[in-house]
Design goal:
The protein is an alpha+beta fold. It is 29% helix and 21% strand. Strands 2-3-4-12-13-17 form a six-stranded mixed β-sheet, with helices on both faces.
């Protein structure tokens, strides 16, 4: 398949062709200063010998010098590899060592997926790389095999900085210490007035970056001609800029300070520019986009320093660098703006200029992950050379980059590569990984990684966990490995989802439904007065023959007494409090596999008998309907009170219904259920008595910087987090609002959108809540998609009361507490509606008091 060339590819081809022509016609330099031993490169010994003389002219290094001793070099990431199909391992759990290796792999995937530019903007197939690596990492028998699996996974990022490195016994990254032999400050003018200024800016030349050297360079540049070659090639491996290191002794800080003192940029600049800076990722929060909530991840850019003009006339500047060069940020502004050309000897490296984090994977091996990226004033990113040339073939030959620079200056040619950032949509997991209900083992482990990552960063209530989520992850990994069918895969993930403990965030999907059961018995249960009571029955021949009636109590299900059944199934659902959990568990009692189920029922006369009740898929659809099908959604009660069942109001005619009911003395809004689209706005507009009101306080959480702590418990105390609090304000016209008495019915079924409607009504109108406490889960949720067509709704916004009082897990406390009773269910009336009607009549028509 042919691939169309990008602008960057065309620029490189044109540059190489031009330089090949220019090199053949170039003239040599009149000095032997630049005939030096080439840089040995990262991981190779540098030539050594007698100490060069400190003179303005360069001294020639010894040809027969002994190799300098070096330490172990970092293991660089291997180039991109064409993956072959790996055999799928048999379902089996790993031992504790294998689980620990997978646990570390999850953290590497987590950090790169959130912070690495290649994953975020360039479409790197990071999820697919994790899937392939997981099966190798879990069974790696030696450190080299483990490091090879990581190199293969990291190669898809195509980033030299993100790599596998060796560490010393103290756990710090090993670096190479090269001698500065052959790299000294110096200058030379050619016969045609080209200034060649040698300023080596490598880590090994750190001792040469003195104030006196800066003053010498400044003097030379102040009298420089119109054409300058700035040779910054150095040697050594620079220190890495990590997010947890501070101070002025970093090599990039030293180089920037030296460049300012030496005027490397200002003396060559003829107009104001802005120094290049770094952008990093801010992760967390939430924003509402196109009708749904999404993560509010964004790039944060540090403002670069201004680079003032020190020259009135423009100069042509050629900057020579190699992989060991630590380029000053001010000088990069000239390259980005086209006022200088960057020629690289075998490439350039932005390692010392950007942030990265290190994660140990063994005692002697670590993974370094890029978390920042260079950004220039014109919006371009990264460090890209205008052209890349090889080293000199012989030690005494002139460097090809120097010959090319002189040729460009003498022929007035311009070589400039496109630095426009390459942006692609995030990679999509292939269907054979993501859409099979029973995915590959690596994809099953990816589900745990995605869920654990969302819990660490996305979940807004991650301080409220009752369970140790990291220990739960360790228990989940071997279950996912051993899953043999789709239902076992979903069952392995269910405990992690139900441990969220702040919202009804159940696992959704076909395989999850199979775990809960795809068939139901012909009745529905609710927890009333500490008993499981049948509230609705499907009327058919089965229920008639078995004698099942509304109001019966279920004392045992599937052979278990109800208290034991509740304890055993507690982790099957997620809920913010006890009353919400019992409400979520009751529908699970009816569900299960098709066939007979053993239940024990107690009738209205307190007699008990055991029944084999059939479960059928045909019973599921009728039982998911509204719980009040026999009652009208809109009806007038005695005392001129209009009852409005908000859950069942038709959204297309709700405004007409509310306008028709304006003459009533009181409205009874039933908020016990789910809220449909368009109903909240119409109800608020009809009852608004305050033109502007703060309905709630919204809290969002952001990760200020990458958190490398291995556990969530440590992250709470050691990682920097930012909280942003905003007020949600409701504004609208109060003309023609309903002026009668307002009452809202609430209980544990008032959750999500309906609970937010109750909060808004409390702020914009005078309303009285009657019933029991609401669910205590008002925050908005975001769907997290997992392999195998599974989904989890994760709360990403915390809502608090307008006075900053807590709502999560607490809910709205009613002014008048009324609960359903078993007697009311058996008698066929709603205790809450009956008691509310009585209360309203007393408020509207209070009894007259006789004067004494």
């Amino acid at each position: 398949m042919l691939i169309s060339p990008t602008p960057r590819m065309l620029g490189r081809v044109a540059a190489r062709a031009s330089l090949a022509i220019l090199a053949s016609a170039s003239a040599g330099c009149s000095s032997s200063f630049f005939r030096m031993t080439p840089d040995s490169g990262v991981g190779a010994p540098a030539p050594g010998g007698s100490t060069p003389k400190a003179s303005p002219k360069a001294s020639r290094p010894a040809r027969h010098a002994a190799a300098a001793p070096t330490m172990a070099a970092p293991v660089l990431a291997a180039p991109a590899v064409v993956d072959t199909q790996l055999p799928e391992p048999d379902p089996a759990p790993s031992d504790s060592a294998g689980v620990a290796r997978l646990r570390q792999l999850l953290q590497v995937w987590h950090l790169a997926s959130l912070y690495h530019p290649a994953v975020i903007e360039r479409g790197a197939p990071w999820d697919s790389a994790f899937i392939r690596a997981a099966t190798v990492v879990r069974s790696a028998n030696d450190p080299e095999q483990l490091a090879s699996a990581y190199r293969r996974m990291l190669s898809v990022l195509q980033d030299p900085l993100t790599r596998v490195e060796l560490t010393d016994s103290a756990g710090t990254t090993a670096t190479v210490v090269n001698d500065a032999v052959g790299y000294e400050h110096g200058s030379e003018r050619t016969r045609d007035s080209v200034l060649i200024l040698r300023v080596p800016l490598g880590a090994a030349q750190r001792a040469l970056l003195t104030d006196s050297a800066a003053a010498m360079v400044n003097r030379l540049l102040s009298t420089a001609p119109g054409r300058v070659v700035l040779d910054l090639r150095g040697s050594g491996v620079p220190q890495h800029t990590t997010v947890d290191r501070i101070g002025d002794d970093r090599i990039d800080t030293v180089v920037d300070r030296f460049a300012i003192s030496a005027g490397l940029a200002t003396q060559l600049n003829s107009m104001l520019t802005i120094a290049s800076s770094e952008r990093t990722r801010r992760v967390g929060g939430a924003r509402y986009v196109d009708g749904q909530w999404q993560p509010d991840d964004a790039w944060t850019v540090r403002t670069g320093r201004p680079v003032f003009a020190g020259s009135s006339s423009p100069r042509r500047v050629m900057v020579l660098a190699n992989r060991a060069t630590v380029l000053p940020r001010a000088l990069l502004s000239l390259v980005a703006s086209g006022r200088a050309t960057l020629l690289a000897e075998e490439g350039v490296d932005d390692t010392p200029l950007v942030s990265s984090v290190v994660l140990p994977i063994t005692d002697r091996t670590a993974v370094r992950i890029r978390t920042g990226e260079l950004v220039h004033a014109d919006g371009t990113t990264g460090l890209v050379a205008d052209t890349v040339l090889p080293r000199a073939a012989q030690p005494l030959d002139s460097a090809p980059v120097l010959r090319a620079a002189l040729s460009l200056l003498r022929t007035h040619r311009v070589v400039r590569v496109s630095r426009e950032p390459v942006r692609r949509l995030p990679a999509v997991l292939p269907n054979y990984y993501g859409r099979d209900p029973y995915p590959f083992m690596g994809a099953r482990l990816l589900a745990a990684a995605q869920l654990w990552s969302a819990i660490r960063v996305r979940h807004v209530h991650r301080d409220l966990y009752d369970e140790d989520m990291d220990a739960l992850l360790v228990r989940t990994i071997p279950k996912l490995e051993a899953a043999r069918v789709a239902s076992e895969y979903a069952a392995a993930l269910t405990p992690m989802v139900s441990a969220l403990d702040d919202a009804p965030a159940n696992l959704r999907g076909q395989s999850a439904d199979t775990v809960r059961g795809t068939a139901s018995v012909p009745f529905r249960l609710r927890w009333i007065e500490d008993r499981a009571i049948i509230t609705d029955v499907v009327r058919d021949s089965v229920t008639k023959a078995l004698g099942i009636e509304t109001g019966m109590e279920v004392t045992a299900a599937d052979g278990f007494p109800m208290p034991a059944w509740i304890i055993d199934h507690r982790t099957a659902v997620s809920a913010p409090n006890t009353w919400s959990r019992l409400r979520a568990l009751m529908p699970q009692v009816a569900l299960g596999p098709g066939g007979g189920a053993l239940f024990r029922l107690r009738d209205l006369t307190n007699r008990e008998w055991q029944l084999n009740i059939p479960r059928s898929a045909a019973y599921v659809a009728p039982l998911v309907l509204a719980e009040r099908p026999g009652m009208s959604a809109v009806r007038t009660l005695p005392g001129d009170i209009v009852y409005l069942d908000v859950e069942r109001l038709p959204h297309d005619s709700i405004a007409v219904i509310l306008a028709r009911s304006r003459g009533a003395r009181a409205w009874m809004l039933d908020l016990r259920g789910t809220l449909g689209t368009g109903r909240a706005e119409a109800i608020i507009a009809a009852v608004r008595s305050v033109p502007e009101a703060v309905t709630a306080r919204e809290v969002r959480r952001y990760e200020s910087e990458p958190c490398v702590t291995p556990t969530l418990r440590e992250a709470r105390h050691l990682c920097a987090q930012t909280r942003e609090a905003r007020s949600r304000v409701s504004r609208g016209d109060t003309a023609g609002h309903y002026a009668g008495r307002l009452v809202a019915l609430i209980d544990e079924r008032t959750e999500g959108d309906m609970e937010r409607l109750a909060i808004a009504l409390d702020a914009v109108a005078r309303i009285t809540f009657i019933g029991s406490s609401s669910a205590g889960a008002p925050g908005e949720v975001m769907d997290i998609a997992l392999p195998g067509l599974l989904y989890v709704a994760l709360p990403i916004v915390e809502l608090r009361q307008s006075d900053d009082g807590q709502l999560q897990r607490v809910g709205i406390t009613p002014s008048v507490e009324v609960r359903l009773t078993v007697r009311g269910v058996r008698s066929g009336f709603d205790d809450v509606i009956e008691r509310t009607q009585q209360w309203l009549v007393q408020q509207l028509d209070p009894p007259s008091r006789r004067r004494r």
